[in-house]
Amino acid sequence: MILLALETATDQCSAALYCDGAVHARSLHAPRRQAEILLPLFDELLAEAGVARSGIDGIAFGRGPGAFTGVRLAVSVAQGLALALDRPVLPVSTLAALALAAPREAATILAVLDARMGEVYAGAFRRSGEDALELIGEESVGFAEAVVLPQAASWFGVGSGWGAYATALRARLGITPLSGVDAAAQPEAAAVACLAAPLFAASGGMPGAQALPVYLRDKVALTRAERGMG
């Protein structure tokens, strides 16, 4: 199985090529430049692996949540490639890709991205295999001090939200132990590829026209007062 994967929901621009278990990847910090460098990254990966575009079986993409422009870019590029190559796509949660950055010994992971305006995107995950995660509850957007936490023996925190709102998130955990934090972790295309591979093998993906972004936040112009924070 050969999959192209991309993740652009943050300032990071990453691309990966999954070839029967081997992963070739590129990742660059490229605020506002993802659109110009993403396709060249794909070409580099294909050349490195000796794979023609016609040899790709599908396209996996980080479907959000994250920066609106970045999430829209991922969806549009995935749809464009799917149309050009006549291949299916497979959306993967950006928060799940972030959670996969946690150490393998971390059983329950709280992935948190800084959503700006004092809010975070958050998702709680349970590791169910080497490259497999199970979402516990629902992904959400809201204030760090109000993140919904399922019950767990302990948590490992990953993502920029832990850098921006560490105090509020630690307070939200209460007495539940925090086994560690990696605030520098980013959602990467390599993780998108690894998460997508078993799903693609099981389902075959979906038509590109059905690829949809997940923003979570419907309105971006509300103040904290309007959101009830006073």
From TrEMBL:
Keywords: Cytoplasm, Hydrolase, Protease, tRNA processing. It is found in: Cytoplasm. Residues 30-151 form the Gcp-like domain. Signal peptide: none annotated. GO terms for biological process: proteolysis; tRNA threonylcarbamoyladenosine modification. Its main location: cytoplasm. GO terms for cellular component: cytosol. SUPFAM superfamilies: Actin-like ATPase domain. InterPro entries: ATPase_NBD (IPR043129), Gcp-like_dom (IPR000905), T6A_TsaB (IPR022496). One of its GO terms (molecular function) is peptidase activity. This is Glycoprotease family protein.
